[in-house]
Amino acid sequence: MRLPALAAITTGLMGAALALIFFYAPTDADQGFSQRIFYFHVPIALTSYACFGWGAWKALRYLRTRDERADLESYVAIHQGVIFGALTLITGSIWAKASWGVWWSWSENQLVLFLVLFLFYCAYFMLRFSVAPGPQRANLSAVYALFGVVLIPVSILAIRLSERFIHPVAFNEHGTNMAASQFFTFCVALVAMLALAATMYNVELAGKRLDARLRELREALQ
Amino acid sequence: MSYAADVAALTRKDLLLELRAKETLPAMLLFVLSALTIFHFALPHGTDDKASLGLLWSALIFTALLGLTRAFVAEREQGMFDALILTPADRSAIWLAKALSVLAFLVAAELVALPAFAAFFSGIDGRTVAAVALADIGIATVGTLFGAMAVAGRARELLLPLLFLPTAIPIVVGGVGGYLWFLALYDAIFAVLSWAAFEYVVSEV
Amino acid sequence: MSTEGKYVAAAYLVVFVVLLAYVLILALKLQRLGQEVAELVELAHKRREDREPDKAVAVG
User: Fold this and answer.
1) What is the 3-state secondary structure (H, E, C) of chain B?
2) What is the domain count for chain B?
């Protein structure tokens, strides 16, 4: 899909999502007004997973085809994943403060999981900056990206297990029992967020490809 | 030469090198004992057994990191990686041999660390020993792969902990909680992944 | 605004600010790319001069 079209769709969806979140969705009976953070926080988290998944897919493509472009696409996808991951942690922390009065809660599975993933994928960038550009760097990045995507379910399991000895605290159900209007709002927000990530991904990719082309041009002229 | 013979030869090489140099293992032993001592002072009085168990695992992970950082030093400093790649051995055999020698170092270090822990803090039960054994496999397999990655980069001693620690978190969870099945699952998944991925990590193309 | 409302606003504000930061970074990049293209145009003109020094060069 052409980038301008994608950006236009994102604008529309995001506008619709925000309108629904603040004018349509009912105030939650249990959690009150602060529950509305949920409509951004969870889609951002899911989008982050999607970005890491896409990055791992492109990494696999790179290892199969050795096509430089796949390496760049993998890198940009993971970059987006980390940005959305950081946003997950920040919005999650704000929500924790609003709901339970603490900025961090180790019994909030999603927050802990994202902390682990955030650490993991930040190391991805350290790895990339540490190695000179070239096929070797692309290989290492691809392998690491695949490790990351395998680590996600393993970490989820580990964190569930760790609850039993960290300290069992009754945690909230994140809207599994949602009203239809809430669910609809959530879905629109989710699609909007995914569209936003796709737009940002394509914008960044276009920018990096342009850099490469200009470098080529410069070399051709000198 | 067969795959098994290749692995055996490479493992023997690593172990012999260490036997002669006597650098890594004594350092790991000293480190684990010092770490446990520091942890004793870091903890307030009357901490329960579960908490001190957590310290054992922290000490083990960091000692393992020390051993892993040393594991590829010989290859790095003498450019042996290129020599190894040129051998007719399957690349993954290199990984397996290195992982086995790392495992040997870990076990040797723990033969001292576990009794020390039992003496300093609280007793060790069979379950913990089994958990440590399983964790060692996970640490050796994943650590060896990441160690090879770190060698390719500039700030190697910095890079290896950064790469290794997030992936090691589930190992600590499985260890402290005594979830042997989880550790076995982790080992199986990541051993296969590391074994398959090593080829790509050492290829220059 | 209630305290609850403030937290919700803060969460959405953070997302908005991150997006705007992204726009800023893109703007800077665009500026840099513009400079680079200008340099390359210079280079291209020079090359043409070197090859055909007497031919009139179209401007614009």
Assistant:
1) CCHHHHHHHHHHHHHHHHHHHCCHHHHHHHHHHHHHHHHHHHCCCCCCHHHHHHHHHHHHHHHHHHHHHHHCHHHHHCCHHHHHHHCCCCHHHHHHHHHHHHHHHHHHHHHHHHHHHHHHCCCCCHHHHHHHHHHHHHHHHHHHHHHHHHHHCCCHHHHHHHHHHHHHHHHHHHHHHCCHHHHHHHHHHHHHHHHHHHHHHHCCC
2) 1
